Amino acid sequence: MTTAETSAHVFTQAELDYLGGQRLGRLATVAPDGTVQNSPTGFHYDPATGTIDIYGRAMGATRKFRNVRANGRVAFVVDDLASTDPWVVRGVEIRGTAEAVEDHEPPSPYLSREVIRIRPERIISWGVDPAQRGMRGRDV
Questions:
Q1: Residue 60 within a domain
Q2: Burial state string for 73-112 with b = 16 or more CB within 10 A and e = fewer than 16
Q3: Which candidate, 65, 78, 82, 118, has a CA 20 to 30 Å from the CA of 31?
Q4: Residue 139 lies in a domain
Q5: pLDDT at 9
Q6: Helix or strand or coil: residue 14?
């Protein structure tokens, strides 16, 4: 199997279904001075590479893009409340490495040509798979 084929199979089907129905997540990056930044952002799962891609209108000018270029360690969380009565939370946390990619064709014409590409190393999910109780974490 190629690296792309291997990385494309890191998420369970329940996690992919959940991520496919969500639009926003929070990206945590680390600046060169060690300051942590957490930014709400849209995202796109790329099945060809198995990565989470973060686009924006001027992504190359953002602190998160500069932080990824300098450090490359990230955590990305997508979560929501499925119900408040009873209280039911669900989500996926992705920890791994990221690269600041320039001159990449965006999925929409209003987005810039820069993208943050996250390669998962650890995935933690909860509440996204009815057959799974509690949190499930695994290294990938």
A1: yes
A2: ebbbebbeeeeeeeeeebbbbbbbebebbeeeebeeeebb
A3: 78
A4: no
A5: 78
A6: helix
Token duo for residue 12: 């369970």
Domain that holds residue 86: 3-129
Tokens 């929409």 -> residue = 108
Distance CA 58, CA 125 (A): 30
Q: How many domains does the chain have?
A: 1
Task: Give the N- to C-terminal CA distance of the chain in Å, as an integer.
Answer: 15
pTM: 0.90
State the CB neighbour count (10 A cutoff) for residue 127: 21
Domain membership of residue 135 (yes or no) is no
Residue 101 located in a structural domain? yes
Q: What is the pLDDT of residues 88-122, one digit of tens each?
A: 999 999 999 999 999 988 888 999 999 999 999 99
Overall residue count recorded for the chain in this entry:
140
CA distances from 38 to 15, 26, 83, 99 (A): 22, 6, 25, 17
